[in-house]
Amino acid sequence: MTKVYGLMVNTGDADEMLWDHGVWETEEAANEYIENEMSAISGIWVGELKVNDAIPEAAEELEADMVECNLCGIEYNPEDVNTEDYDVAVCLYCEPGYKENMNIA
Length: 105
What we know:
Blueprint: E1 2-10, E2 15-17, E3 23-24, H1 27-37, E4 44-51, H2 56-59, E5 67-68, E6 75-76, E7 81-82, E8 90-91, H3 95-104
Antiparallel strand pairs: 1-2, 1-3, 1-4, 5-6, 7-8
């Protein structure tokens, strides 16, 4: 968990953060911002926020082998290509026309 500091205000029902003003790494920096930029506004204070750090493994992109549609020649994710019901790989966009032509023959 990382601690950051943001500007808080009481809206009547609860304390809320003023997200559009950003966050600071230290409480002193946030207080300095209030003094320099918002000195004419009352009811604003610095509040501590706990932020979950990103998990590096979650950001890794899993590379899936792409499958080429035999009809249109475009590569798709394997989930978007039907390779089980036909002799050729058919993408979900070509499948309706392929089925129609199979019924005619």
